[in-house]
Amino acid sequence: MAENPSDNDYWSANLRIIKVCLVIWALVSFGFGILLRPLLSGIPVGGTDLGFWFAQQGSILVFLALIFFYAWKMNKLDAEHGVEEE
C-alpha cells in the first residue's frame, strides 16, 4: 500500500518533536545533573546548590513539563493532519 505524502509529513513532524524532547531530557538529566554539576555547585537554590537541585528535583520537573509539552504538540499535530481523537 502506497503511503500518502501527508503521512510522511505527519511522521517526520512527530519524529522532530520526539528528538527535541530527547535532547532536552538528555541535557537536563545527564548534562546539568552530572556533567555540569561542578560548574553549578556555586549557585545556591533552596538551601542546596543548583547542580544537586537539577539532579534531584529539577530533572523531575523538566520531565513532567516535557510530558505535557509532548501531549500538547501531538494534539496540535493530530488536529492539523485530521487524525485527532474524538
TrEMBL record:
Q: Which InterPro entries match?
A: Na_symporter_ssu
Q: Which UniProt keywords apply?
A: Membrane, Transmembrane, Transmembrane helix
Q: Which domain of life is it from?
A: Bacteria
Q: Does the keyword Transmembrane helix apply?
A: yes
Q: Which residues form the Sodium symporter small subunit domain?
A: 8-84
Residues annotated as transmembrane: 20-40, 52-72
Name by which UniProt lists this protein: Sodium symporter small subunit domain-containing protein
